[in-house]
Amino acid sequence: MPVVLPPVFWSFTVDETCDHKEYTDLLQKIAQAEQAGLNMKYQADQAIAKERSAALSRIRASENAAQQKVSAMEQALTDERKARIYQQELNENLLRISKERANADRNLRPKKSHSGYVVISSTEKTHRYKNGNRNWAVTTLWETVLQIPYSVDFTEDQARRQMSDDLFQDDPLSYFLLEKIGITAVYGKEYAEMIGDKRWCADHDSFNVMLDWRLRANHRTGYWEVLFFHTKPLGIVPPDMRARERSFSEAR
Prior knowledge:
By secondary structure, this protein is α+β, with helices and mostly antiparallel strands. Helices cover 48% and strands 20% of the residues. It contains five helices and five strands. A five-stranded mixed β-sheet has the order 1-2-5-4-3. The N and C termini lie far apart (172 Å).
């Protein structure tokens, strides 16, 4: 019969003290690594929070600086607007006083509301021009001299600007002032250009058209005048727009 061998038992000695120490060290290293990770995360969170706070501070500072600039610009605009309005009111007041004095000087009544514009003369003249065929032609125009309420103490630029504001603005008062003496249309260039400008008006013959105005300083009277041609004679000039003798008190 077969021989049965006894089981073989392997035996060895385990250093339980050494294994426990290594295990403890491993746990400690794991804990330290976890703590280091937590510390790094905390520091990263702190750094992010600090940077976010600094960024918000910079944004707020930029916003405050921008708002300060905007406020300063708004204040500057407000101050400039107030100064402009004040200067405009001052200029308007000075112009009003100047016009009243000019009206009183020329015996124009009522001095506070009179336009200050009066007709000095209106003369029929023969006018030569080149027609569309570039040939010389002749027509009859009228030249009128209108004294304006601005003395020769005004510069040419000042007198021109004020006269333009009074006569040529898109305003019913401007139209009314010219219509009072029979002017019913205005064309700022010469007669030859007007008759060739079909885009402006193909039926200019039906209007008394004011043309080609020029300024003149009359140092004898002390006032600026505007001279202009027009296509038809003036109507009957109303009495308040006829030149009068200067007042005695001012003439002295």
